[in-house]
Design brief:
Blueprint (H helix, E strand, L loop, with lengths): L11 H7 L2 H12 L3 H11 L31 H6 L8 H12 L4 E2 L6 E4 L2 E5 L4 E3 L5 H14 L18 E11 L2 E14 L6 E10 L4 H19 L23 E3 H10 L5 E2 L9 E4 L7 E4 L14 H10 L3 E6 L2 E5 L12 E7 L8 H10 L10 H18 L19 H11 L4 H9 L9 H9 L12
Parallel strand pairs: 9-11, 12-14
Antiparallel strand pairs: 1-4, 2-3, 5-6, 6-7, 8-10, 10-11, 13-14
Helix pairs in contact: 1-6
Length: 481
């Protein structure tokens, strides 16, 4: 067994809870050792070997062999190995379908990836639920299995204890299998955890599979992933209760976010949740592109004016954005989650079929996305960096240099001290401005100073000429301006 020294005497629930290979193999060999084909027939009966007809590349039909098909290839160890998953070929999607049937009261259904196809809000094709088995087993047997699976995910015990959540009950089973290669069983493992939640009111089923080198166990690696995904999914199902709101500001986010897209779809949503809206009445049976120009407390639907070339997709959900662009023959690559906040081709740009359009999605407002996200998106599509106003930044060094010059006592004319006559009680700031004007380094700036109205300082014409011709040198330390 996986546990050094074994687990001692165990009941069937303990065997499942502790994932004892010895316990499972012993039970199956004792019950079906004389007629192994009955064991395989039982698996066929509960639907684990059913062809699910999944139209996805790479899908394979489960394969579990019968002894009667090739008795010469059947050994005394074949059945015990099969009982714990070896010498069989069962894809994860088939395992998940089985656990979903256990959670579904014994009704085995075919997995659905698409429920319907729509065109212009009209249903073109539906994909109804396909029932593979109305009843996988007896009701009492099903309850026993459910109890065992829930025991695996105990708070402090069971191989699936790391999938335990304090918010809801989880049921499932861990799995660990070595991967076969041409050199035999290598030190690579496929670990898994399959289950459903909430265990008392099943709503979701899930399987997590990870390929990993040794040491690897399903409970150690897959259960934490299962728990994190399950809690995230369940959190999305929570509805905020606004009855305890004490003021109007607490209801700020009661209105769902609606920015841009198909106005007919927005209209239907608003009507379904009983919210009023303003703006044009949307009566067309087709798609009407537009946006919500209202506030967070009021919806105003505004139809988009006819545009040539690339439309503005800011505020669109991914589905509407992809639909609209692909109708134009463009290829779409989206990054992020939420609504569109950046697009690689500017609105109004002429486009041709086959061009690639990049979309950046975020749950934040387009003005509040991080600079890193914005720069990464721009680099990805070769977009120029956002221009920034550099006027203030370029002006600052000259001001600092001037202040530094004054503090160090420097002057453009080291040989002549210009008398400073303060009038009208001018402050220190005005004195600084006057000193900068008189210390102009070029003839042109001196001429400009001559035209400047009287500012409260006096300098002789002879001094002005000397100042204009004087070379720029540092004033010796200790000199005063």
């Amino acid at each position: 067994d996986w546990r050094k020294g074994g687990n001692g005497v165990m009941t069937v629930p303990d065997i499942i809870k502790r994932s004892s290979n010895v316990g499972v193999s012993g039970l199956i060999d004792r019950a079906y050792g004389r007629d192994p084909d009955k064991f395989v027939e039982g698996l066929q009966r509960i639907g684990i070997m059913e062809d699910l007809h999944i139209p996805i590349p790479g899908y394979r039909v489960p394969r579990i062999r019968y002894k009667r098909d090739n008795p010469s290839r059947w050994y005394g160890t074949t059945l015990p190995w099969m009982s714990i998953g070896y010498e069989t070929q069962v894809p994860p999607i088939s395992t998940l379908t089985f656990y979903n049937g256990v959670a579904n009261g014994g009704k085995l259904v075919q997995p659905r990836f698409v429920t319907e196809i729509r065109r212009n809000d009209e249903v073109v094709k539906e994909f109804p639920v396909v029932v593979l088995r109305e009843k996988m087993c007896k009701d009492q047997t099903l309850r026993d299995i459910q109890t065992c699976l829930e025991g695996v995910v105990g708070k402090n015990s069971g191989t699936g204890k790391l999938a335990y959540s304090k918010y809801f009950r989880v049921a499932g089973k861990t799995g660990t299998a070595q991967i076969w290669s041409k050199h035999g069983f290598a030190a690579n493992y496929l670990v898994s955890f399959a289950g459903y939640f909430p265990a008392d009111r099943p709503k979701y089923s899930m399987i997590v599979c990870i390929e990993k080198t040794a040491p690897a166990y399903g409970g150690m690696h897959c259960c934490p992933v299962f728990k994190k995904i399950a809690e995230t999914v369940m959190a999305r199902d929570l509805n905020a209760d606004y009855r305890a709101a004490r003021d109007s500001t607490a209801l700020r986010h009661e209105l769902p976010f609606m920015a841009a897209g198909d106005l007919n779809a927005l209209n239907n949503v608003l009507g379904a949740i009983g919210l009023g809206k303003q703006g044009l009445p949307v009566t067309s049976s087709g798609i009407v592109w537009g946006s919500n120009t209202g506030t967070d407390r009021q919806v105003r639907l505004t139809q988009e004016t006819t545009v040539q070339g690339m439309p503005s997709l800011i505020g669109y959900g991914l589905r509407d954005a992809v639909y609209r662009l692909e109708r134009m023959g463009l290829r779409v690559k989206a990054t992020g989650v939420g609504h569109v906040v950046r697009q690689s081709i500017a609105p109004g740009t002429r486009v041709q079929r086959g061009m690639r359009v990049g979309l950046l999605l975020s749950s934040k407002d387009d003005k509040h996305i991080s600079e890193e996200e914005d720069q990464t998106f721009r680099r990805m599509y070769g977009l120029p960096a956002e221009k920034k106003d550099s006027t203030q930044k370029t002006a600052e060094p000259s001001v600092r240099e001037s202040e530094k010059s004054e503090k160090s006592g420097t002057n453009d004319n080291p040989t002549k001290k210009t008398p400073q006559l303060s009038t009208n009680g001018k402050g220190e700031n005005e004195k600084k401005k006057e000193r900068k004007t008189e210390a102009a380094p070029t003839t042109q700036s001196s001429a400009a100073n001559n035209k400047t109205p009287h500012t409260g300082s006096a300098t002789s014409s002879t001094d002005k000429k000397k100042n204009a011709a004087a070379p720029s040198k540092k004033t010796p330390k200790g000199s005063k301006s």
